[in-house]
Amino acid sequence: MDDPEQVRARLEETGYLVDDGLAVACFLGLRLHRPLFCEGDAGVGKTALASALAEALGAPLIRLQCHEGIDASQALYDWDFPRQLLHLRAAEAAGVTDADRLESELYDRRFLIARPLLRALQTQPSVLLVDEIDRADDEFEAFLLELLSEYSVTIPELGTLRAEVPPVVVLTSNRTREVHDALKRRCLYHWFDHPSFARELAIVRRRLPQVSARLAEQVTALVQALRSAELLKPPGVAETIDWAEALDALGASEVDAELAVATLGSVLKYREDAERARGLDLAAVLATRGV
């Protein structure tokens, strides 16, 4: 893709709408082979960007879901110990006694289990999604920074494996904690904010073309109002889409306050948030928007 506008067009063909800043960030990430660090609240489209990039590039999406305590063996590679043991027993049964030969056979690539990071280095082209990096610990951040600096990894038994073509890398963070500056400096940064009413409505219409225009407008208006209600977890665009899809599945072409309350479980996931939403005048919200 030759310029940011072409990036925007290709992403929009997949159903993912981007603004100028994100189009430029994606273009530079592709051109400079720099990871894209996406930060923002849950449900604002960070993970969906990686999926859209993979579709736009015609490349497989390789996902690493981070969690507390994740280590290199879970993210990079491991050895298939059961198969190694079976091979060792078979060799012994065949009378093989050469220890050096046995060791070299045991640590052959056929017994190597490639985890997401190694698969991304070995797959060209590919899009690597490192999801929720803020859930990992400092040691894993340092390890990831080293790997992304050279797009290579050294396996003691096999030597250094280097990506012929660096993968497109998207890192996401919900900002449950601050990620170290060293990792951020390696990346291009983009903050994902909640979209405006018009932009969110456009996203819903693009993702759910079967939903009536009136229902899409009403649901978008309600979600925008919920975000200003000081909830524990304000709904993201993903929840807006879920809510509209749920109402459409019920056969609704529009929504009133009673139906909105009955389907709050599609958009709010905390009891306290649902109670606060029930205390709002949702009918007034709909009337104010004029939808």
Structural write-up:
- With 291 residues, the protein is of the alpha/beta class.
- It is 51% helix and 14% strand.
- It is built from 15 helices and nine strands.
- α1 crosses α2, α10 (197-207) packs across α11 and α10 (197-207) packs across α12 (237-249).
- The model has no long low-confidence stretch (mean pLDDT 92).
Keywords, separated by commas or semicolons:
291 residues, alpha/beta, 15 helices, 51% helix, elongated
Summarize the model shown.
This protein is an alpha/beta fold and 291 residues long.
Task: Write the SSE topology.
Layout: H1 4-13, H2 20-32, E1 36-40, H3 46-57, E2 61-65, H4 72-75, E3 77-79, H5 81-93, H6 99-106, E4 112-114, H7 116-122, E5 127-131, H8 138-150, E6 152-155, E7 159-162, E8 168-173, H9 181-186, E9 188-192, H10 197-207, H11 213-227, H12 237-249, H13 257-262, H14 271-278, H15 282-289
Parallel strand pairs: 1-8, 1-9, 2-5, 5-8
Antiparallel strand pairs: 3-4, 6-7
Percent in helix: 40-55%
User: What general outline do the C-alpha atoms trace?
Assistant: elongated
Question: How is the largest sheet built, in terms of strand order?
Answer: 2-5-8-1-9
Q: Which strand-content bin applies to the residues? A: 5-15%
Please state the oligomeric state of the protein chains shown.
Answer: single chain
Sketch the major β-sheet. 5 strands, parallel
Separation of termini? Answer: 39 Å
Order of helices and strands: HHEHEHEHHEHEHEEEHEHHHHHH
The number of helical runs is 15
**Mean pLDDT value:** 92
Number of strands: 9
Unreliable residue stretches: none
Gyration radius, in Å: 24 Å
| Structural class assignment | alpha/beta
